[in-house]
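Can't attach files on this board, so I'm pasting raw text. These are the components:
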Amino acid sequence: MIRNFVLAGGIIVISVRIDVFNDECLWKKFGEDKSVFMKMFGEARSILGYMSILQADLYFHGGVGHFYEEHAHGLALASRDDERDAVEVEDDHGHPHEHNHNAFAVPSKGGILLNIVQHIYVSDHKHLLGKDEKEILPWFYFAVKMDPHNIMAYTVGGYWLADRMKDVDEGLNLLKQGLVNNPESWEINAELARVYLTKKHNYSSAKKLLIGADKLLSGVPHDRFQERYVLSLLADSAELSKDKELALNSYRRIKVLFPEDPNVERMIARLAGSEDAR
Amino acid sequence: MKAVLSIARGMYLELFRRKDFYVMLICMLALLSILASQRYFNVEGITRYLRDFGYTVVMLFSFLIAVIVSASQIPWEIESGTIYPLIAKPVSRLTIVTAKFFGSFMTGGAAFVAYYAVFVLFCAAQGEGFSVVLFAQAFYLGILFIAMVSAISLFFSVFMTMSAAVTIMMLVYFFVVNFGDALRKYVLGSEGIQFIFGCGIYYLLPHFDFFDMRIRLTHEWGVLPVWILVAITAYTGVYIALLIFCSSALLEKREL
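---
Top answer:
Structure tokens for the assembled complex are below.
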């Protein structure tokens, strides 16, 4: 990955030189106070920013990456702990078989050279845990330095610092920095609000940010799950800051999005103090 | 043997006259110093990225030194005419190639040792501790890697110009590192003539990926079993011996 990273960097540096627009932007104003990454990579630095995120994911998986079994049954990640206990599933013929994490476990044909690789390559699966969780952080740092408009780097980095590393203040700092660079991002507003709501218990700040996130979200293409995410947080923060009207309104909007959801119905009933709740 | 050592020693001393060795060393020191001095979100003790970058740079720079030194030997000797007094002596072509190989290997190996020592010092200075056995295994496989690279570059340089040999070597390295595993999966998934053909290519290609300890070293995976190290050593030895034999045979046929 690092090797590809360096190679991509080289190609990008060259591509910037032949890009007329970037030449105008960068080389004529080279003396201006721009980030070193902007000077070196121009607009192409966003690619490197996303590569940093991928690298963070790779570090999370011990440098090995994802295995097919994780995503074989859908987009959601399966529980790795459960997988580790050798999940029993049925194959195409209805026979149960054991999932094997060793991606290189193959029939032994072709002699020693073809089969020795499965013992040389790392083919097990692990996640960063405990004190090792900090090892992922440089990649979020590089991602936001390279591309200050990489929304994912701020939101995932903020989550990692506040929730996984238990360093709420650093997480908030990163998200606030993201908000300064991307004031139009509903994702950063929502993530910042989530940290205020769940970690700082600052409900009024969370509510303000979520109202902003809701407005920003309505101005961009989005799906109902994203809207539900913002509205759920807004309903929670409104309820906790004693603004029942806003909380009720938020749940009603969620009900429009998910009319079949009984939980939303229950929440509305509870807040409205109706007989159904009792 | 005396002739081999005499020629190889001259090449080894050349390393200390080469500027590229020092340039790469300074670049490496600068890069590792910058990386080691960084603080990320006020969190201390982050080391894996340093090992990742450091090991990659050590292998890359050692690879470049080994390729440039070994690929330049025979073309330069022929171009400058210094090979004629050498072959006028009762020295066989096999001896010349073997000496050139050992010289290149010692030169590349010395560069690797210097770079690796710097890398280990930086890792130790981080104070997080590391597996000595894993680092020793990475060092040993790095030495084998340099030997393999020297032998292949030397082989190409027997019938190519220096620049062509270096370019081909880079391409082979790029192909094996990036597509070696894809080729292996293709071979294992094929049958009949495709399997035989694929196996032939797979066995013919030099497997640089066997020596790559980056992921193990960076993410603290377990050490390699001893039998794997023995198998890789045997593979490297056989591959190098065949290359030296083929190189000397080609040099024998070449009109000088």
